[in-house]
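Hi again,

Forgot to attach this to my earlier email, sorry! This is the prediction with adenosine-5'-diphosphate bound. I've pasted everything inline since the attachment limit keeps bouncing my files.
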Amino acid sequence: MTNATLLIVNCGSSSLKFALFDTTKGEFVADGIAQALGSKSANFSSNNAALDGHAETKQNVDIPHADHAQALSLCLKSLNETFDLEQSLVGVGHRVVHGGESFNSSIVINANVRKEIEKCSPLAPLHNPANLLGITLLEKRYPHLPQVAVFDTAYHQTMPQQAYRYAIPEKLYTELGVRRYGFHGTSHRYVAMATANSLAKPQTETSLICAHLGNGASVCAIANGESIDTSMGMTPLEGLVMGTRSGDIDPGVLPYLNNHGYSIDRIDKTLNKESGLLGLSNESNDMRTLTKLAENGHEGARLAIDVFCFRLAKYIAAMLVSIPNLDALVFTGGIGENSAHVRRQTSSHLKHLGFDLDTNANLENGDATQGVINTPSSRYKIMIIATDEERMIAQDTLNLITN
Ligand code: ADP
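Structure tokens for the complex follow:
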């Protein structure tokens, strides 16, 4: 008998990431990515795990000027070489970036859901149309298969007004939807679940500050399992210093730059693509590279890491306001899980607030993805938990299509 599988799709403006989840084994059995779609350098790579009678197969092919539809055909063809999708596929889970105020959880996609996702497109003009394109292509290919949308914003819909409203005229909120929505919700929700499991507590009684530190980065205050504050805002630009994003900046800088010849588009590009670790270091957006450079005396790299860790510590301290019964500060994401240096430098700013890092445990966990890294006398636990957004999407998809 063929095991049931779920296809997980993350369709971006010029990329299509996918993974195949085997619901019987409870694990991913294939994944891949088509990137630079629409350009000369478009490329497709995939990896199918070994299956009875099939060896592990890896593919890497250039697909110049291929579009999303061609990339999807290639993805399905490559999966079909090992897994009989016609027999096994029971559902598709899509990552959708913006659900606005319309969605507070994942949902099976129908015509109304599509319309609502479309209505949220002005809030995420680069992402939601691409997510919808993925949904349309899969619907054409498998019209009878249930498809589920899992939103980056949904988890944060529990935030109270005091956390999500900006102090600007009310009509900008009521007429244009200008408020804080928050992102990385799927990751923060997964980490909340995994932390509760690790502490052997019910999720509804577990409170944590989750620091998701990847190329994008955000902190989330999670009280008794629910998001009650987060550092990203109406867009994923607010908050922490990120790979190429500035995070918080005085809004007064924007008209100032505009008055000095920077167009709105140029400002947008500068703050999203040329700032953050890259802007400060003038060298790289990659924490691993910057750590090595800083060790070798590169001033810009050292400054970038200093600003990154200081801003992060400030946000963690700010999130403490919302959580009187904190269980743990949890580091996750590529930097959070792997950079002992960032965890140490950030914690050094927080020691007097009750976060006492055990430097040996922190180092030993440098390359590990799980662990408790505080001293026995620390008021709060400090932990590393590996995030797994794809697994969360698979789990939501499975729950929704089986109920
Ligand atoms: P994305 O947001 O694209 O999913 P990731 O979560 O993969 O990103 O995180 C990427 C970041 O993690 C990069 O800055 C990378 O340098 C950093 N990183 C990965 N491994 C290490 C490591 N061993 N030490 C320091 N930083 C690391």
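The chain has a mean pLDDT of 95. Residues 214-216, 243, 286-288, 291, 333-335, 338-339 surround adenosine-5'-diphosphate (CB under 6 Å).

That should be everything now.

G.
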